[in-house]
Amino acid sequence: MAVIKQINQGVLRALCYAVLIVGAAVMLLPLVWMVATSFKTFAEALAIPPIWLPERLAWENYPTAWAMAPFGRFFLNSVIVAVATALGGVIICALAAYAFAQMSFFGKNILFAMALGTMMIPGIMMLVPNFITMTRLGWIDTYQALIVPWLVSVFIIFMLRQFFMSMPRELWDSAQMDGCSRLRFLWQIIVPLAKPALFTAFLLNFVTSWNSFLWVLLMTNRTEMRTLPLGLALFAHEAGIRYELQMAMATVAIIPILLVFLSLQRYFVQAWLRTGIK
Fold it and tell me: What is the pTM of this model?
């Protein structure tokens, strides 16, 4: 019986690995196709049947595509907006999450429930009110319009709150006995312990801001204020069927996200394990 049980467990484990491998292959195929196409010639990109790998690496696709549109400006705008949104969002959301998790004040639970309720509102419904607000503030075609509305994320507040609540109450009691203020306790004790959650919040904010398309389309009229996703869409229209050039710039666009994710991946895993979010 023990041998049969071990065999069944081995078969089940093999099936799980097989499913994971197939799933990973399905997820990676579009990425592999994009990178491979970015090195193809014009004829290879349009070949029927499709050619998976080019005969030679057409490195010239990258400088050619880069020179066809102001991608340097698009890239700079994306970096400014994504970094400012991610960093500012972490600071503001951490302060709010700390208040909900560690402090007691009148109406805390009701206020937090109301904040969670806003997550049920489709984001598309908020576009018009937010657009009117930005117009009245005179923020159209400014960095403020691309950054300020996204500095607060209820999901990030919820995630950080769960992480802060997992910390023992005795930490604050001990710090209070030593004369530690709330702000000092947050900065010197909570923040070092919460690095996994804070880096995860930074990563989520960065990726969301970097990939933002519709809001940037509404808020910008001038080409020099456009970010990379919108610039790619405009370039795809101008480049026509030059798919190899489109894929070259799409590959450039995902490099920062990959670098940020790979550098913060270990914190990302630790945060999900400790917050208990599934």
Answer: 0.84
